[in-house]
Structure formats: C-alpha cells, structure tokens
Design goal:
By secondary structure, the chain is α+β, with helices and mostly antiparallel strands. The chain is about 35% helix and about 20% strand. Bound molecules: ligand DP6.
Length: about 325
Amino acid sequence: MSNSSIDKASVVNRYLPAQLVAKENADAFAPSNIALCKYWGKRDVELNLPVNSSLSVSLAHLGSHTNISHSDTGLDRVRLNNKDLSLDSNFSRKVIAFVDLFRRGQKIALTIDTRNNIPTAAGLASSASGFAALVLALDEFFSLKLEKSVLSAFARMGSGSASRSIYTGFVRWDMGTQADGMDSVACQLDSKWPDLCIGLIKVSSAQKPVDSRSGMTRTIETSKLYPSWPEQAGSDLITLEQAIAEKNFSQMGACAEKNAMSMHATMISAWPPLVYWLPESLAVMHKVWQLREAGVAVFFTMDAGPNLKLLFEACSHSVLQAEFASMEVVRPFSD
Ligand code: DP6
C-alpha cells in the first residue's frame, strides 16, 4: 500500500470544463452491489486503488436515489432519508468534500438529497450506491456527459465498491495498473441469470466497530495471511466468471463462499483481530451448511459486518424462506 503522489482533485479536474454550467436540478439512482469476489486491500489509499480485481452483482432497484438542486440559503444542505443533517456530520463532510472535487472553489451552494431504499432490515452498507448515485447526479447536474468508465473511476474515489454500482447485473472491477487509476474501473459482464436470488439476512444493525477502510489497512499491515489474498482473489475471479458464463450455480456459490471466508481469514489473523462475525452469524452459517448437506443448493457471502447474503436459485426460494423467515429476497435480473 502506498500513498499516491496524485491527488483526487487533479484527476477529476482533467475531465471537467473550465467553467461549470449548472442545471436547475438533477436526479440519479444507483443500485447496491454484493461482491462475489471481494475487494480487500488498497494499493493507493487516496484514490482507492485496489490490490485485486473484484466481481459483484448489483441489487436491481435496491440502492440510492440522489437529487441535486440549488440551495436558496447560500449554504450547502445535506439531506439523508428525508432529514436535514448537520454539516459537521461524517456523512455531510464526505459528501461535501466529494462535491468540492467538481466545484473547484466555484460558489455554487447545493442541496444534496439522498434517499436509500435498501430495507433497513437488510443491514446493507449504502456507501457503494450512495457514491455511485452522487457521481451520476453530478454528471447530470453539470451536464458533463462523462463516459461510464470515467463515472466508475470517480465513484471509486468516493468508495472503492461504488465503482461497481455504476452498472446493473454482474460487474467486474479491474484493478488497473496506472498511477492515476483511470484504468481501475468497472465494466458490466454480458451474462444474465434470471433465476438467481440473493437473500439478505440481518443479524444486527449496530454500526460496525471498524469500517472497511481501517479494516483493510490493519489487515495489510498486520496479517501474515494477507500476502496470499491477491492470488486467491485472482484465481477466484476466473472461476466465478467461468461459472457465471456457464450458469454453473454450485461452482459459483462455492467459489463466492470460499472467497468470503478467505477474506475473513485475513481479517481474523490481523492484530488486533478483526472479527466481524457475531454468534448469530455463525449460527446462520451452520444452518446453511446443514441445508447444503440435506441437498439444498445454498451458499453465503459476507462483507465487513455480521450480516449474511445467501445465494440460491428460484427453485429453492420457498424452502429457504421457511428456514429464514425474515429473509428479504432480491432477484437481480428479474426484479
Ligand atoms: C468487504 O468499498 O466500503 O464490502 O473503498 O474504503 O470505501 P472503501 O471500502 P468499501 O469496501 C468494501 C469491502 C467489502 C468487499 C467488497 O464490497 O468488495
């Protein structure tokens, strides 16, 4: 991991006109995404350039809506889920710092209104869809007409996983090699999988004790297992792409579950240990393994938190809904 000599502002600046022309307002939506091959570790913390490529599936209509309009008070206004936030809050500061990359000192006071429709019960992070929707709304508001790959790179500068939320369906984020990161962008895969279901299982909605950004830094700096991660992720990515192209569900599910467990192994072996699992998370894992033993094709994946996402096909939906009553199900290609 290195601190880049290139700052975000200078990268964004290259793609902007000398003078911004603002519309009255602009609206955008971006979906949440679930990684099947995880992004874990940065080679550049300023630009969120990853150590490995990753692959995700976007969650259709579940995500963030962002509206940008002029603020009549002369001061920025940041709203989240229909409430005004203090400009000192973490969320407001991140949003304003990001918008400033585009305004470059021009005095344009804005109202930035974000609404997440991710069910609160799902326990999903919203920074991926949030930054992707913000980039899409800025592109529209300032009539920038940027290419999708550029939008993906800009969203990545807000939060790495946001690079993938620019697209629907299966999405691969290529790590890239350039120092300015403009080749570290996501692209959509051709394949569709109408029967694929994602079950969102919430075991806790408490805020995670260590966010992904600090978790990655700690893992890289202290885990003896981390050096094996980039190679594992590289080979999982190939297996997953093949399984998706061939619609081989058990290959895809097994690889996604193994990839998540390998990422967690690097976290658990960090110091101090990063254990995002709760006893309830482990109980769900055991239930999934028992169901698999009994012949139900179901796998799980987990991110930097205690909640689980189940992967299964439509034919197993009713049996799994009976086992996990509060599970919220998304069909990324049919919803
Ligand atoms: C475990 O994209 O939230 O969910 O780039 O620091 O904002 P930052 O991290 P973030 O990390 C996501 C990590 C993950 C795996 C994944 O979504 O690929």
